[in-house]
Write a structure and sequence with these properties.
The complex is a heterodimer. Chain A is mainly beta. Chain A contains no helices and eleven strands. In chain A, strands 2, 4, 5, 9, 10 and 11 form a six-stranded mixed beta sheet that branches. A five-stranded antiparallel beta sheet of chain A has the order 1-3-8-7-6, with no helix packed on it. Helix content of chain B is 0%, strand content 55%. The N and C termini of chain B lie far apart (34 Å). The chains are: A mainly beta, B mainly beta.
Amino acid sequence: SQQGEEDPQALSIQEGENATMNCSYKTSINNLQWYRQNSGRGLVHLILIRSNEREKHSGRLRVTLDTSKKSSSLLITASRAADTASYFCATVKGAQKLVFGQGTRLTINP
Amino acid sequence: DTAVSQTPKYLVTQMGNDKSIKCEQNLGHDTMYWYKQDSKKFLKIMFSYNNKELIINETVPNRFSPKSPDKAHLNLHINSLELGDSAVYFCASSPQGQGSYNEQFFGPGTRLTVL
């Protein structure tokens, strides 16, 4: 069954604002990853957070992980038009595979 | 330089035909994957190969047969295409061993349309 579920499904904000996307999952995990997909393109890895980590930063990205609530959030600060894309969380447990959610479509309005 | 490449980018074909999608990675990775993304953007793994050996087969119909001639290539052959096979197919690769404990690198995708 599908593991990650992103919320909201779609998000539209003004350039310069912060964007927050959430991901919930159902079973225990080894790590959780966030990917970005621009329209018509493949996925690009953004950040990986391990199950024993609570927060991670990469440039304008901040990811949190709460294993007790089985949830993660991705914060993009000072959004830019180029951040317009779909964002996916993917969980990893045991077997060598990623299980993706359905993604959040983020639109940054100039 | 393209890290993970797929050909063709677009594939339009009739029901019942047999078609192949090719994937190559120049990253030196040992693990390669095929994913299917449906019209609702739901992305699901189909196969995973590590050093030419099949390690994941996610209940994919037998009409789908992956082939890995070497660790840099993972091709996907589809027999007797059906309307429901229409989707975007992504190839990906990751470093040796703990494949999904590391990030995966995705190709640009192949949009398959079955008429």
